[in-house]
Design goal:
Shape: globular
Strand content: 15-25%
Helix content: 25-40%
Low-confidence stretches: none
Distance between the termini: 20 Å
Length: 117
């Protein structure tokens, strides 16, 4: 997921149809947001709570602000299971969303191994 640029309480959440999401699912991870048509869904923190995933990967630009830092005082955000269990991780948007190659996937899988134990 990525913070929506126009709204601080909304997030662009990748569905299982997105390139990297589908790859992680094929690698054996249970991807929470399923959608047969769309690769993204705009979701509020309240909607994230209905999914309440064990893990959250947050896509951020290299020079962008930290979503974890921006949301640290948000009571709803802090109710998310992944946040409570320190399983919300920020990852590079350029690597996790824009790069689509076998070497990029190898790097992603190496990084993902640290998050999904």
């Amino acid at each position: 997921m990525a913070a929506d640029e126009d709204e601080t309480q909304s997030f662009q959440v990748r569905t299982d149809q997105a390139f990297h999401s589908s790859f992680l699912s094929a690698a054996g991870l249970n991807y929470a947001l399923k959608d047969e048509k769309e690769v993204n869904q705009l979701m509020t923190t309240e909607q994230l709570l209905t999914m309440d995933s064990d893990q959250i990967l947050i896509l951020i630009n290299e020079d962008g602000p930290s979503v974890l830092e921006e949301q640290k005082d948000n009571l709803l955000w802090n109710q998310l299971k992944a946040v409570q269990n320190v399983n919300a991780h920020e990852v590079e948007l350029a690597t996790w969303s824009r790069q689509r190659s076998i070497p990029a996937l190898n790097n992603i899988m190496d990084e993902a191994a640290a998050y999904f134990k």
